[in-house]
Write a structure and sequence with these properties.
heterodimer; A: 163 residues; alpha+beta; four-stranded antiparallel β-sheet; 4 helices; elongated; B: 451 residues; seven-stranded antiparallel β-sheet; 13 helices; 21 strands; globular
């Protein structure tokens, strides 16, 4: 009996710690902007001071929780390249483990938005004939993403099975 | 156009039936007549009538021009269709990419002996692969030509590259086809009467009558009427769609012919079957009836409502017959017996995650297929051959982790079939995943790609 979300005989390959930095940067930006909005509203609306303090404390709490959760979530992203298939595990709270056989891949996408480019990461997305296949690996170092894409494409072609 | 089918014909440019614009605008003509009826009888044309007349004349001119400018021909393994009055479009449909070719006869077209050729193109929209309207004979001939050409291109015909090209009537089974199942009218009517929709409505009606007689409460009539109308309409649509349902087998796969007003002939190519789902509504179980739907590669479900669906290969039949058809459909991927697969229910602690439905969740892995069953009111048995499994997905939410449960999902192409084991023991789910992974890999390896 296997631990339900254990790696398949080899260790999980982790995603780049830059992903946590990226998400925390976004979190900080959002928190700062929201705080600014709250302060601006405080000047405009005649509500008692304690209610604004309460709102700021709640915001700080949510931001702190998110900061921790981002770390947990990024640690839980992992993938394992095997001879015939790719395992992907993600989600700390809602856990998911996906197995995609190379022979079932239709195509592989590599995406990197402006923010991701700034942090030097990219995400790899595997597509099969099923729209239900949610096989995505975010936060890979750009070079690793390109290598993975090339390897997956090559394996996909050599092992392709008919629909 | 009713040109005879000879090999040289395929080189020529051909046109649709000249009646096409008339059939396409039949609804408009009827609407025009209906709305200007009074004026027409009086012999005095009001502004509305003139407007309609202008639209009709413009439509007729456009229709005629469109007919003149639409040509199709077969060249170099492609069906080419040129259309467009002002801006020209040229479509090229690769014959070897055709998944299936259906002949459909909408009511008005049927009156004129015309038919529409619908082609399933992998990844293409429905609009892209339609040729409307042709005479029925032409449509059949073209369909046969395309199918023969496709098989010649793929080179996978068992009896040589060029099978006999003969007209296969859309309305009657061709000689050599073997009858698999036929739906008789009384069964169809009774099944509609026993459908979940009807029963729910009747229950609501009884409750309403009781409330009215005991409490003197008369509300809700206005709301009930549209619901009743909707119900009747849905059931009538099913009746007219499933009327005369006949399933036969031929060398190309399963042939389905059905329809009261709008006849349709459909071919399910066995090598494209991705899985089947058998549905047994509560009220049907006493009669031992079931319904069978199939998932076919390239055929995406459009109709999501309660109406008739194109994926249905048998609207209602005795369970044994449905299982037989399921076996026939899955034959290309082994020799599966969906009913022989041992299904295991979810553990008792799943009641904390799914209080009502946990008793009705089961999952099993057989020699050739993976099967799951769920549903209280409508029990659905989903079956996917190992050779068709795309990817596997294990999922666990925080509440499920507390209970030590997890969901296992078998991903397959879009369609009605969805095999999943919900609220399994987490360790068992991972084990099942590992087993299914190995079986799917083995099945994929031994499975020869069909063209």
């Amino acid at each position: 009996m296997n631990e339900p979300f254990a790696p398949p005989g080899q260790d999980w390959q982790a995603v780049s710690p830059a992903l946590a930095r990226l998400r925390r940067t976004v979190l900080v930006i959002v928190t700062v902007v929201t705080t600014g909005l709250l302060l601006a509203l405080a000047l405009l609306l005649p509500l008692p001071v304690w209610s604004w303090i309460l709102a700021l404390v709640a915001l700080g709490f949510v931001a702190a929780c998110s900061w921790v959760l981002v770390g947990r979530n990024v640690r839980w992203w992992g993938y394992a390249e095997r001879d015939e298939d790719l395992y992907i595990r993600h989600g700390a709270l809602f856990r998911t483990l996906v197995v995609v056989p190379y022979g079932r891949m239709q195509y592989v996408d590599v995406q990197a938005g402006p923010l991701e480019q700034a942090f030097g990461v990219a995400s790899v997305h595997l597509h099969t004939a099923s729209p239900g296949t949610s096989a995505r690996i975010p936060g890979l170092p750009a070079a690793e993403a390109a290598r993975l894409r090339d390897r997956l494409t090559a394996l996909g072609q050599s092992q392709a099975a008919g629909l | 156009m009713s040109a005879p089918t000879e090999p040289s014909v395929e080189r020529r440019f051909r046109r649709l039936s000249p009646l096409t614009p008339l059939v396409r605008s039949a609804i408009l003509v009827v609407a025009a007549l209906a709305s200007t009826w009074d004026d027409l009888l009086r012999g005095d044309l009001g502004p509305l009538a003139w407007m309609f007349l202008a639209v009709l004349v413009a439509g007729a001119v456009y229709g005629a021009a469109s007919w003149l400018r639409t040509t199709y021909w077969i060249e170099a393994d492609e069906l080419r269709v040129d259309t467009g009055v002002l801006s020209r479009q040229s479509r090229r449909i690769r014959v070897d990419r055709l998944q299936g070719i259906d002949i459909v006869q909408p009511f008005v077209a049927r009156l004129f002996g015309l038919a529409e050729l619908k082609m399933d193109v992998a990844g293409g929209s429905a609009r892209e692969g339609s040729l409307a309207f042709l005479t029925l004979r032409d449509a059949q001939a073209l369909r046969e030509t395309l199918l023969a050409q496709r098989e010649a291109v793929r080179g996978t015909v068992p009896g040589g590259p060029h099978p006999t090209v003969g007209p296969a009537p859309a309305t009657a089974p061709a000689a050599g086809d073997r009858l698999v199942a036929r739906l008789d009218l009384s069964t169809l009517l009774l099944s509609l009467l026993l459908s979940p929709e009807t029963v729910l409505f009747l229950l609501a009606a009884v409750a309403w009558v009781v409330a009215m007689s005991t409490l003197g409460w008369f509300g809700g009539v206005a709301a009930a009427l549209p619901v009743l109308g909707g119900l009747l309409l849905t059931q009538f649509r099913k009746l007219s769609a499933y009327y005369g349902f006949v399933v036969t087998t031929s060398t190309r796969g399963l042939q389905i012919r059905r329809g009261l007003f709008e006849l349709s002939a459909q071919t399910v190519t066995l090598s494209k079957v991705q899985g089947v789902v058998m549905s047994e509504p509560l009220m049907w179980r006493r009669m031992g009836w079931a319904r069978l739907d199939v998932a076919v590669a390239g055929q995406v479900e459009v109709d999501g409502g309660g109406g008739p669906s194109a994926s249905t290969v048998m609207p209602v039949a005795p369970r044994a017959e449905v299982l037989l058809m399921a076996r026939l459909l899955l034959e290309a991927s082994g020799s599966p017996d969906a009913d022989a697969v041992e299904l295991v229910g979810a553990p008792a602690r799943a009641r904390w995650a799914a209080p009502v439905s946990w008793r009705h969740l089961s999952f099993g892995i057989g020699e050739d297929v993976v099967v799951s069953r769920e549903g209280l009111l409508i029990r659905r048995t989903h079956v996917v051959p190992h050779a068709r499994v795309q990817s596997l997905n294990l999922h666990q939410g925080p509440w499920q982790r507390r209970l030590g449960l997890a969901d296992l999902r078998v991903d397959s192409p879009p369609g009605p079939v969805r095999v999943r084991g919900r609220h399994r023991d987490a360790y068992e789910a991972r084990d099942l995943m590992a087993r299914e992974r190995v079986l799917a890999e083995a099945a994929r390896g031994s499975f020869v790609r069909p063209g």
